């Protein structure tokens, strides 16, 4: 049987949820032409999605795609999801780790396409020989992790599977609902959870244990050599050391020292209690264990053990839960809410995890509510008697569920469940309405490039082009605005290449151009520097084309910038509107030149 | 005397699966989580530790004498066994080796090729265990 396994390019599983049918077919030259991941994802989205559809209608389409390096090489452990976002109204794009990419690899699936809407809530299981649809009505409104546990018990195959689930927020179509992968990883940004909810998909599982012949699919000797080199770079150099020691939470203290840690809804850039919520503090006081995604020797997933005494309980009435934490969650639910107690942050993470919402968006929504409350923009009548104050964890804990469960009668919480943009439209407060192109941002007040990176990025994520990183790089080495914007655009194009592989961006230092080319070559995929760069640029053109076709307006998103962005102290001092104007003009001119599309 | 594989620091396992892939890559020329002599799985939720299931490298391996096919499983010097793939044929036995081994999962039959899959103590996995769970050691224990 192994002799027959000459599959380099895996299959496509296309599911029509409306009649619960599926088709598995060969990907033919799809991966040749578009690499994989975002390259394949954006191409298929363009092929399968009609322009202008409601993102929460059955007409929306979800594409999951892995790339050529997944499972073959260390830290190539992500899966790319592409869809139309219910939060931003344009490009929905998100990446998650866990074991999803390895399960797809061993199921010989390169792509999963979801279309239509199931008549009833279901989950589906992809086995090697087909798909089973299972009634999920009895699981409605269960948390993502309870749902995941139940699905795992039902399907068996421990070690060879991956389970993706949504929580109540996804079922209630909250546009920043996430999809949870294997308990601790998430398709967090841009609302995949709501799209799955709109399709009545409570979750899905992929089971895979098909061996893949390395003799037929690789230049075996070269493959083993390149594997060893990448493994050594990953584990024996300091390229990724920060991720396994303190994890992403290592960023809290340095960013705070740079006056770049968003605090109190971005009003401040320095949090006096940062030491108590730092990666160092979490690691020494609360860290229970580290775990890894499939095929990643780093193990950046930091699980804290939260011991909680029951309300009115005795000294022995206590339970412990494991909560995974990261930099972005500590910013969004810590400094940005002025919560200076690490355990309180874990409580907030857990509460949001149970609902199945994106922690960054939820945190920024909570921060807007606290500021609006402080400024009397919303009244106790609006909050239904709840106090919403910075620094008070109980205030936030008591409204997270209200937001997740809100109906139209509960106007404030219902609006909050639609995001900061919706709150600003309803109640005003644009000056402190922190979102860029309708997406609540990640935690960086580093300077111009972080903000511009959010604005011009394909999915408006900090990971599109890492403006926050450029801000820090140029602190002592000033560059011109023109160089800066060019650098952002080059970075985004290169990341499109890495996101086609699909490697974890934490390993971007390991996968430089030469290493990437060698890894591909060992898999008999021959690409030159120029070809890879061209692919990255072409993907960017398609992502932008998709956005503008869906009605994205750069000008409008820029005009909605909260005044706070120009009142902020950052690592680069106060930011000025005239400079943002200049940066935007430079971007538009260069983008039109690069991608030959009208950018406005 | 040869060394044998020991799961020395199980509590440190982060579940990355690199040992599993190293085994199949080196010994089978496959990318596989199944055709590997090592299995890594969670032991009841991610909060609990992982379990690494692999042959313990016995110096008097009970699987070898239990095998009814002469020469299919031979004791290895330094501990453990070597399966002769030319001779082993799971369609011609009742998988007595699995029955004889007290560690569930240490030996499994690959149904695609009908052969027993068991660690040959090569140590390829150890080079790819970043947290030091797996080590190669001289056999000093009583087993």
Automatic annotation (TrEMBL), chain B:
InterPro entries assigned: 4Fe4S_Fe-S-bd (IPR017896), RnfB_subfamily (IPR050294)
Organism: Candidatus Heimdallarchaeum aukensis
Keywords: 4Fe-4S, Iron, Iron-sulfur, Metal-binding
Superkingdom as given in the UniProt entry: Archaea
Keyword flag Transcription: no
Gene3D superfamilies attached to this UniProt entry: 3.30.70.20
Molecular function per GO: 4 iron, 4 sulfur cluster binding; metal ion binding
UniProt-recorded name of the protein: (Fe-S)-binding protein
UniProt domain 4Fe-4S ferredoxin-type: residue ranges: 3-33, 44-78, 79-108, 109-139
A matching Pfam family: Fer4_11
PROSITE patterns named among the record's database cross-references: 4FE4S_FER_2
């Amino acid at each position: 049987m192994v002799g027959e396994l000459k599959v380099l390019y895996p299959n496509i599983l296309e599911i029509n949820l409306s009649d619960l049918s599926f088709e598995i077919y060969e990907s033919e030259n799809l991966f040749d032409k578009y690499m994989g991941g975002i390259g394949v994802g954006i191409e298929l989205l363009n092929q399968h999605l009609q322009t202008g559809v409601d993102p929460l209608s059955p007409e929306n389409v979800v594409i999951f795609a892995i790339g050529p390096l997944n499972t073959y090489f260390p830290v190539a452990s992500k899966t790319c999801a592409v869809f139309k976002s219910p939060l931003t109204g344009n490009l929905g794009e998100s990446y998650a780790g866990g074991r999803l990419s390895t399960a797809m690899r061993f199921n010989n699936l390169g792509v999963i396409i979801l279309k239509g809407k199931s008549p009833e809530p279901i989950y589906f299981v992809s086995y090697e020989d087909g798909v089973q649809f299972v009634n999920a009505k009895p699981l409605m409104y269960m948390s993502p992790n309870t749902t995941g546990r139940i699905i795992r018990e039902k399907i068996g195959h421990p070690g060879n599977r991956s389970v993706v689930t949504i929580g109540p927020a996804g079922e209630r179509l909250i546009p920043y609902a996430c999809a949870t992968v294997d308990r601790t990883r998430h398709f967090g940004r841009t609302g995949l959870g709501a799209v799955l909810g709109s399709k009545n998909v409570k979750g899905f599982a992929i089971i895979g244990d098909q061996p893949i012949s390395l003799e037929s699919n690789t230049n075996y000797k070269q493959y083993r050599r390149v594997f060893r080199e990448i493994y050594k770079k990953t584990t024996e150099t300091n390229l990724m050391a920060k991720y396994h020691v303190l994890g992403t939470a290592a960023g809290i203290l340095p960013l705070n020292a740079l006056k770049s840690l968003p605090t109190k809804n971005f009003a401040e850039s320095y949090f006096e209690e940062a030491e108590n919520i730092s990666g160092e503090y979490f690691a020494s006081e609360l860290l229970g264990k580290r775990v890894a995604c499939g095929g990643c020797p780093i193990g950046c997933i930091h699980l804290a053990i939260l011991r909680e005494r029951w309300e009115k309980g005795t000294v022995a009435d206590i339970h412990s839960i494991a909560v995974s934490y990261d930099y972005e969650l500590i910013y969004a639910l810590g400094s940005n809410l002025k919560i200076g107690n690490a355990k309180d942050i874990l409580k907030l993470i857990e509460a949001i995890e149970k609902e199945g919402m994106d922690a960054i968006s939820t945190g920024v929504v909570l921060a807007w509510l606290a500021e609006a409350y402080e400024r009397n923009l919303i009244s106790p009548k609006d909050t239904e008697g709840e106090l919403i104050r910075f620094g008070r964890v109980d205030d936030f804990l008591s409204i997270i569920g209200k937001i997740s469960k809100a109906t139209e009668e509960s106007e404030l919480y219902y609006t909050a469940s639609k995001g900061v943009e919706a709150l600003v439209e309803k109640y005003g407060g644009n000056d402190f309405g922190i979102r860029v192109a309708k997406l609540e941002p990640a935690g960086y007040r580093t300077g111009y490039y972080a903000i511009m990176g959010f604005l011009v990025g394909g999915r408006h994520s900090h990971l599109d082009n890492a403006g926050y990183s450029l801000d820090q790089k140029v602190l002592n080495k000033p560059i011109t605005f023109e160089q800066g914007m060019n650098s952002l655009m080059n970075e985004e194009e290169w990341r499109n290449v890495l996101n086609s592989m699909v490697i974890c961006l934490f390993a971007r230092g390991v996968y430089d151009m030469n290493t990437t080319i060698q890894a591909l070559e060992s898999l008999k995929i021959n690409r030159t520097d120029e070809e890879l760069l061209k692919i990255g640029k072409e993907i960017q053109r398609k992502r932008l084309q998709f956005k503008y076709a869906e009605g994205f307006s750069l000008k409008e998103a820029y005009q909605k910038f909260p005044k706070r962005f120009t009142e902020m102290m950052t690592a680069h001092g106060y930011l000025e509107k005239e400079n943002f104007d200049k940066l935007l003009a430079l971007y538009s001119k260069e983008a039109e030149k690069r991608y030959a599309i009208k950018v406005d | 005397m040869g060394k044998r594989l020991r799961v020395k620091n199980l509590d440190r396992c982060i579940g990355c699966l690199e040992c599993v892939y190293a085994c199949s890559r080196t010994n089978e020329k496959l990318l596989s989580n199944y055709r590997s002599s090592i299995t890594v799985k969670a032991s009841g939720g991610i909060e609990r530790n992982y379990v690494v299931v692999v042959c313990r490298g016995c110096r008097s391996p009970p699987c070898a004498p239990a095998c009814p096919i002469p020469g299919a499983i031979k004791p290895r010097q330094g501990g453990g066994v070597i399966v002769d793939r030319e001779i082993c044929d799971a369609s011609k036995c009742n998988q007595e080796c699995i029955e004889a081994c007290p560690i569930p999962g240490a030996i499994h039959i690959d149904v695609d090729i009908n052969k027993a899959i068991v660690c040959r103590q090569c140590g390829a996995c150890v080079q790819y265990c970043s947290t030091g769970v797996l080590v190669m050691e001289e056999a000093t224990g009583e087993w």
